[in-house]
């Protein structure tokens, strides 16, 4: 029986990973939340990893703006913590699937970033996540998998879609930025893709390295908000476009981090579906959007 360890199991993606894995009778799953495993503690990580065949790391410092004032702390989690997992995996032979981010790119490209595009993060969060990617590549060149994702939303944690739905009940109009392009990605769909990648890795079909775990197509935050309103039965005209300079933030945001997905073919897997189709599936899922946790 394959033994899988999920770190960061209390988060939005972690919860969906457990939902996907829970239907598998051929797997033994260990789920550890942030409170149960501090990945910056190398000894604790080594003990937790022992006896597992696959590690799926959904633990991370996710506060993008907070990382600007605490880059060392963010890097301890997103860089050193990932290195601890990779080192433990190297000792035991376990495969590591590590979730990273589109923010490792500068975000000024005019075409989708391929998996092997040069990285050049523009903020502390991106630099901290890049440190984790490099640790996986260095310590697990043959059994380490980096899956970059972006613009995650889902039923089990704070995110943009739930924020829009909550604010719909508080304001007549919402001003949403229309000058940042990306790929909204349903956390449940990403969880299913990660499990499929784990299966392919164990079967020897998926080469180690970087994969892009975002939905295809692209939109802006404004476009996503309008789509969410439409699917929720709300008037999308209540969403008004604006620009990023109207909402200054501590961390610089990339303006365009659309990712390419060619590498899934070498693993024999299809990429994630179009973002709007996936959003529709999310709204049609067994968890009604009105019950999604508000941010």
Structure notes:
The protein is of the alpha/beta class and 295 residues long. The chain has a domain at 2-157 and 184-217 and 258-273: Rossmann fold (3-Layer(aba) Sandwich), CATH 3.40.50. Helix content is 37%, strand content 17%. The protein is built from 9 helices and 12 strands. The strands form 4 sheets. A 6-stranded parallel beta sheet has the order 2-1-3-4-5-10, sandwiched between helices. Strands 6-9 form a two-stranded parallel ribbon. A two-stranded parallel ribbon has the order 7-12. Helix 8 packs parallel to helix 9 (275-284). The protein is globular and about 55 Å long. The mean pLDDT is 95.
**CATH secondary-structure class of the domain at 2-157 and 184-217 and 258-273:** Alpha Beta
User: In percent, how helical is the residue content?
Assistant: 25-40%
Kindly report the oligomeric state of this protein.
single chain
Unreliable stretches (pLDDT < 50, length at least 5) are none
Rounded to the nearest angstrom, the radius of gyration is 18 Å
Total number of strands: 12
Count up the helices. 9
Strand content: 15-25%
**What's the CATH topology name of the domain at 2-157 and 184-217 and 258-273?**
Rossmann fold
Shape: globular
The name of the CATH architecture of the domain at 2-157 and 184-217 and 258-273 is 3-Layer(aba) Sandwich
Order of helices and strands: EHEHEHHEHEEHEEEHEEHEH
Give the CA-CA distance, first to last residue. Answer: 38 Å
């Amino acid at each position: 029986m394959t033994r899988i360890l999920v770190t960061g199991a209390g988060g939005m993606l972690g919860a969906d990973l457990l939902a996907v894995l829970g239907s598998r009778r051929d797997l033994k799953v260990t789920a550890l939340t942030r409170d149960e495993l501090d990945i910056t503690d190398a000894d604790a990580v080594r003990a937790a990893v022992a006896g597992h065949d696959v590690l799926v790391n959904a633990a991370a410092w996710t506060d993008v703006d907070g990382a600007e004032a605490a880059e060392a702390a963010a890097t301890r989690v997103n860089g050193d913590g990932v290195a601890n997992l990779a080192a433990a995996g190297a000792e035991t032979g376990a495969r590591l699937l590590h979730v990273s981010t589109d923010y490792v790119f500068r975000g000024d490209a005019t075409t989708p970033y391929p998996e092997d595009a040069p990285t050049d993060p523009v903020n502390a969060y991106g630099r901290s996540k890049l440190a984790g990617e490099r640790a996986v590549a260095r310590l697990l060149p043959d059994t380490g998998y980096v899956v970059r994702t972006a613009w995650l939303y889902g039923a089990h944690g704070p995110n943009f879609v739930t924020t829009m739905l909550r604010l719909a009940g508080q304001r007549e109009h919402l001003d949403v930025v229309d000058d940042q392009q990306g790929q909204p990605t349903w956390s449940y769909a990403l969880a299913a893709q990660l499990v499929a990648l784990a299966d392919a890795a164990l079967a020897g079909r998926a080469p180690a390295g970087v994969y892009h775990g975002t939905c295809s197509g692209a939109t802006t935050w404004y476009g996503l908000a309008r789509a969410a309103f439409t699917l929720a039965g709300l008037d999308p005209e209540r969403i008004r476009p604006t620009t990023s300079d109207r909402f200054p933030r501590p961390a610089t945001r990339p303006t365009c981090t659309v990712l390419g997905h060619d590498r899934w073919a070498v693993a024999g897997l299809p990429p994630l579906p179009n973002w709007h189709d996936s959003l529709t599936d999310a709204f049609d899922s067994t968890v009604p959007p009105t019950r999604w946790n508000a941010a």
